[in-house]
């Protein structure tokens, strides 16, 4: 029962994306790019048309710059892989069981939060790392927009990717689980930087946008979590934002 529940979805993914897509070791990169593109367009419409937080010109310029960087990187890696074939993933024909899917997805979210939290904490705790790497992200002032999450130094971008995706790849997670994980953690980080607190968003589990606004506006490093909330609450850096207290 558990085995067959996800099989139609996995068959659809193999049929429409192709086995070659999952043979690419960094197949999660196009997934991240797709999430960024979809959420970026949707939130930018709210930023420009509904709430008029930024101009259409600014949103377009920043969005195109971010997307060209991410799309360019994904395409470059894919082309290099097609030419040199340094590492070919073995692609399973069977889907993971439902229990394995849920359990591993939850575990990787927890691990991803732990590693990204401590990397983020190092960025604020070490003057050299902050001044040479993390400063770029904090040049973006409040109010934050959907693209803020991706204004980062290349070293920071690489480190975040390593923190998030080395664990599932090392443990040999099923590609279907890695894709779901990429969608989940990218969406969480996007919403954290979006500048909008959504009414039904599980702020007890995932970081609120208002909390990260506080992180960008205060000198003392608070609300460092961007994947899940437990990092801040467990390690003493959580500060409850006013916007959440009023909701």
Automatic annotation (TrEMBL):
It comes from the Bacteria. The keyword tRNA processing does not apply. Pfam families: FA_hydroxylase. Keywords: Membrane, Transmembrane, Transmembrane helix. This is Sterol desaturase family protein. PANTHER family: STEROL DESATURASE. The chain crosses the membrane at residues 27-50, 62-84, 96-119, 173-196. Residues 108-237 form the Fatty acid hydroxylase domain. GO terms for biological process: lipid biosynthetic process. It is found in: Membrane. GO terms for molecular function: iron ion binding; oxidoreductase activity. GO terms for cellular component: membrane.
């Amino acid at each position: 029962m558990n085995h067959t529940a996800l099989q139609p979805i996995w068959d659809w993914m193999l049929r429409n994306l192709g086995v070659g897509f999952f043979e690419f070791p960094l197949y999660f990169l196009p997934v991240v790019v797709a999430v960024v593109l979809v959420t970026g367009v949707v939130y930018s419409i709210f930023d420009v048309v509904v709430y008029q937080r930024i101009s259409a010109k600014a949103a377009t310029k920043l969005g195109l710059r971010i997307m060209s960087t991410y799309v360019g990187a994904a395409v470059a890696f894919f082309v290099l892989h097609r030419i040199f074939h340094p590492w070919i993933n073995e692609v399973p024909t069977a889907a993971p069981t439902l229990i394995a899917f849920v359990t591993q997805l939850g575990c990787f979210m927890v691990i991803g939060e732990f590693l990204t939290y401590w990397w983020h904490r190092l960025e604020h705790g070490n003057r050299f790392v902050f001044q040479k790497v993390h400063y770029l992200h904090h040049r973006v002032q409040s109010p934050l927009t959907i693209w803020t999450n991706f204004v980062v130094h290349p070293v920071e971008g690489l480190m975040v990717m390593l923190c998030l995706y080395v664990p599932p790849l090392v443990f040999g997670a099923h590609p279907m689980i890695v894709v779901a994980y990429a969608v989940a953690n990218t969406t969480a980080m996007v919403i954290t930087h979006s500048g909008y607190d959504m009414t039904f968003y599980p702020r007890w589990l995932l970081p609120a946008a208002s909390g990260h606004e506080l992180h960008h506006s205060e000198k003392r490093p608070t609300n460092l979590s961007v994947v899940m909330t437990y990092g801040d609450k467990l390690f003493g850096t959580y500060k409850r934002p006013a916007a959440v207290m009023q909701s």
